[in-house]
Hints:
Blueprint: H1 2-16, E1 25-36, E2 40-44, H2 45-56, H3 60-64, E3 68-75, E4 83-94, E5 99-111, E6 118-129, E7 149-160, E8 163-177, E9 183-200, E10 204-220, E11 225-241, E12 248-264
Antiparallel strand pairs: 1-4, 1-12, 2-12, 3-6, 4-5, 5-8, 6-7, 8-9, 9-10, 10-11, 11-12
Amino acid sequence: MNRLVIYVVLIMIFLCQTESARSEWYLGGYGGYSAAQPLADATMNSYGERVAVDRYGFSSNSVAQGNTLTQNFQTSDLSLDQSTLFGGKGGYFFNDQGFSWLGVELEAFTTTPTIKTQTVTTNQDITFLLGPGVTPTVPCPVPPSQQCSYQENLKGTLPVTQSSLRLVTVLFNVVARYPGTTFQPYVGVGGGGFYFSSSGQIDGRQVVPGLNAQAGLKVLATEEWGLFVEGKYNYATITNLDPSGFGLSGTYSAFNLLAGIAYHF
């Protein structure tokens, strides 16, 4: 044990003697773990519209008569799988411009936050408004002087089977670091495109804008090579995924932990 401590101390002393990397361009690859949070504020309005149409017998003839049907089909948060994450990045720090602490970075990674098999609770608001002069088939719930309308709030449950969901993300980040000779803690923030593709009960593809925040530590072992660990938070909003089926919308977020290696040149 004492020898191990001595070796570690000697290695740390050696690393502390290394010079700063001469170049500020770098490429890196990484892998890690993505903890996708449940899809929040979830709605399935394409599915809900079919439920409402079946309930009121709404048709093209109803539209011609001036009838209107509106609804909102909300569900409880939709659970997603946690999964592995793989990606790469490249960047540049403005050392020659006198801003060695400031840089920009382009990265891409992929993960699979699969939609789990589950049962969600549902809450649907429906408003069916009859056109002028249309005779209702049941007593109108409003005074005859007003246009006849029916309003309902339906609560229930909906079984959801597993759908394979893949996410490919491309981000542009602004990064600030402490430009140490060996240890370089850093933070970054950015945004980009989030490509969601799903197959199964929920089937669809969509690219949406999203945000990224990150913090990490890079250790420079030589002038060219460095190791880094990093934590990320991602945020994006899915809108009407699988429009002909469920029309899934919701807020996606994930906490990611990763480690990788970078080459400076």
